[in-house]
Design goal:
The complex is a heterodimer.
Chain A lengths: L2 E8 L6 H7 L9 E9 L5 H8 L4 E6 L4 H15 L4 E4 L10 H10 L5 E5 L9 H18 L11 E4 H6 L9 H11 L4 E5 L6 H6 L3 H18 L1
Parallel strand pairs in A: 1-2, 1-4, 2-3, 5-7
Antiparallel strand pairs in A: 4-6, 5-6
Helix pairs in contact in A: 1-2, 5-7
Chain B lengths: L1 H22 L5 H17 L6 H8 L4 H41 L2 E2 L4
Classes of the chains: A alpha/beta, B mainly alpha.
């Protein structure tokens, strides 16, 4: 009986949260028990109420009293998964950019014991991604690989999977968007067996507006450097 | 002359704010003394910049202005580093508190 915790960080996602939750398959091969942990990161647009209205009995709502950023929300989701002893955890964006079928693709290497950390890479097939996103992701992935010693084709992907050992070992220190690169660092530092699977991305006007802007790449880089210096 | 007047006015303004903060118990006596010393020093030095040359010789720097600039930049960099470290620690503490509360109040959504 393997259990899966699907972590959905959500900040002001009233426009997409219902469609995202309703799109998650009832049955996910490889997981006998599924819990969807929605982390409402201090939303002010009624996201939490919509989660209560649209979610089913698999959904657990974790509410941040104030906004802590993507890293803070993912850290809370992982803490919940660790606290309740889940076998696997998968992070899944709330803005509707992931194809629900890809959850199974990310889970498969974990369930088969082939990997302890899996990233769903949008770059392996690279279809449908706007050019500025492709360039931004490519650049950040190269820099992340250089800084943290683990090669990833899509370090900024929001669809990631972790085994129990990874859930127990990962201790995030960053609160904002730079958390995606920090995951790569932690996978490397904990010596987790790593795999990538190709996933699709669904880009809509909504998800493009909510997602990372090219200017964020500079901010992420600066934060990574500051964190790296402060860690010393 | 304009520079001197502006510097003195700004120093007086800063010292006045300091005293107000101290009276409202928003600053410690040590803070008050330290910053009063700095601002009054600046207000004096702007009138007798040549006096700082002796201090510069002690440091092995050409002129007093160079020495003050060097010390100011070093001090500011150190203050920025300390503030960044402090803010990061506060951010982490805040996240820990918010996370603990979220885990404690986790609610299972009722079946539709």
């Amino acid at each position: 009986m393997s259990s899966l915790c699907l972590i959905v960080p959500a900040f002001n996602e009233a426009g997409a949260i219902c469609a995202t939750l309703l799109g998650i398959p009832r049955v996910i091969p490889g997981a006998a028990e599924v819990t969807i942990a929605v982390v409402d990161d201090g939303s002010t647009d009624g996201t939490a109420d919509l989660v209560r209205r649209c979610g089913d009995e698999r959904v657990v709502l974790l509410r941040h009293a104030v906004n802590r950023g993507l890293g803070g929300a993912l850290g809370t989701g992982l803490a919940y998964a660790k606290l309740h002893g889940f076998d696997y955890a998968i992070t899944y964006d709330a803005d509707g950019q992931h194809a629900p079928d890809d959850i199974e693709l990310v889970l498969k290497p974990l369930a088969n014991g082939e990997a302890e950390a899996v990233i769903g890479s949008r770059m392996l097939e690279g279809e449908g991604m706007p050019l500025h996103r492709t360039v931004g992701n490519w650049g950040l992935s190269i820099i992340t690989s250089f800084l943290f010693g683990l090669r990833s084709t899509d370090s900024q992907s929001g669809l990631r999977g972790f085994s129990r050992r990874a859930i127990e070992g990962i201790a995030l220190r960053t609160d904002r968007m730079e958390v995606s690169s920090e995951f790569i660092k932690q996978i490397h530092d904990l010596d987790l067996r790593y795999a990538e699977v190709p996933i699709r991305s669904i880009y809509t006007g909504y998800s493009l507006a909510k997602g990372q802007r090219p200017s964020n790449a500079v901010s992420i880089l600066l934060r990574l450097v500051v964190h790296a210096l402060m860690e010393k | 002359m304009v520079l001197k007047a502006v510097t003195v006015l700004f120093a007086v303004f800063a010292m006045q704010r300091l005293v107000k903060r101290y009276k409202r118990r928003q600053a410690f006596l040590f803070e008050l003394c330290f910053w009063l010393l700095i601002w009054s020093g600046i207000a004096v030095v702007v009138f007798v910049p040549q006096k700082t040359d002796q201090f510069a010789h002690l440091l092995g720097v050409g002129t007093g202005v160079n020495a003050l600039t060097f010390i100011a930049i070093t001090g500011l960099l150190y203050a920025a580093w300390r503030l960044t470290a402090r803010v990061q620690q506060l951010e982490r503490d805040l996240t820990r508190m918010v996370r603990a509360q979220a885990l404690e109040t986790a609610e299972r959504v009722k079946a539709r």
